[in-house]
Amino acid sequence: MKKILTVISSFVIMLCLGGVYAWSIVASELKKYNFSASQSQLIFGLLIAIFTISMIFAGKIERKKGSKIIGFLSALFFTIGYLVAGFSNGNFFLILVGISVLAGIGTGFGYLASLTTPVKWFPDKKGLITGIAAAGFGLAATILSLIIEFLLESGKDIFNIFIIIGISYGLIITIFSFFLDSPIKKEDQKNEKVSFDFLKSTNFYKLFAGILFGTFAGLLIIGSLKPIGISKNILDAKILAFAISFFAISNFLGRIIWGFISDYIGSQLTIIFALIFQAISIFLLGNIALTDGIYILISALIGFGFGGNFVLFARETGHIYGIDRMGIIYPYVFLGYGIAGILGPLTAGFLFDLSKTYTLAIYIAAFISLCGGVLFTVSAPKIKS
Tens digits of per-residue pLDDT, 294-335? Predict the structure, then answer.
């Protein structure tokens, strides 16, 4: 029963933490308070960077104190961060500290605990279980985007919404952290010598480069998905919200399906398919006439491809280095996503501020994703899954 509760709890915690992918709605609201595209994307990008860096420290704490403590710390940082942003009165620096730094740390701690703990119970189903845990993070934007739209329509401003999110989500994370159990005893982890020889491994840098390319391309588009729709004359607010929701649903499904596929054909081959799929989907966003339906469909396709990044590289890390070392090594692989978190959204914001169009950003994102697929084709880790 513990293993089932651990998987469910991990999924729910991820469901709270993954609301970051509804950022394009928040970015649109911040523009009403004279935030530039670059400023709003800096908040989003730095959040991703802090989130990934904090996972390294979370991994070290988790080995000494266990997953529950990491979950509780996640709730604490997340709640305080959103409260700081909520009471900021639109101050850019306070929102940056609250959302990007404090909530970013909370996100990293919770993500690490939720991703690595359940897979320890199911070593023979690494792809599927990793996919289920990560799927909560992908689905979160659907729920949060609907909540934000509802609260906006009810008269709440974005700062009131930050406060509501911080308190309610923080409470949920705290409750479900009680059920994060690991089959590996903390005493065993404490006594085991942590080796960083993986930093000399070619496989590590191949995984690092792969997730950097894949997530850079996705993040270049995701943070600006709603503004891109508006620039393509998709002006109905409900259609824009639906597109983000369908992106999130497909992101959710993609994590499970890509993970399931990888258990049968291996993550190496699946990574190539996922990155090329993402590249084609992004390319279509800028090269066909967009109706409401096509805009929603392409958003969903991009989300489906993007979701694979968060399952396949984690699965391959666990396969190559062992599940018991995954909590230490994967955060370093995941730093590629942190770099992408800074470069992707900032590049999109900068290019739009410079050219007043998202066309170039779309082409660059598609090209980078394609390069990731090609790179992994010629230099995939030489280990059979």
Answer: 999 999 999 999 999 999 998 888 888 887 788 888 889 989
Could you say which architecture CATH assigns to the domain 2-379? Up-down Bundle (1.20)
Q: Where are the alpha helices (DSSP H) in the chain?
A: 2-17, 23-30, 37-65, 67-86, 92-95, 103-119, 126-153, 158-177, 186-191, 202-222, 225-231, 237-265, 267-285, 292-307, 309-321, 326-333, 335-355, 359-379
The alpha carbon of residue 261 and the mean position of all alpha carbons in its chain are separated, in whole angstroms, by 20
pLDDT at residue 99 in the model: 94
Using an 8 Å Cβ cutoff, are 218 and 344 in contact? Answer: yes
Mean of pLDDT over the chain: 86
Question: Can you tell me the distance from the alpha carbon of 114 to that of 9, in angstroms, rounded to the nearest whole number?
Answer: 8
Q: What is the largest CA-CA distance in the chain?
A: 60
Q: What is the residue extent of each domain of the chain?
A: 2-379
State the pTM of this model.
Answer: 0.79
Would you call 94 exposed, middle or buried from its count of C-beta atoms within 10 A (0-12, 13-18, 19+)? Answer: middle
Let me know the angle formed at the C-alpha of 60 by 166 and 271, rounded to the nearest 5 degrees.
80
**For residue 163, is it left (φ>0), alpha (ψ between -120 and 50) or beta?**
alpha
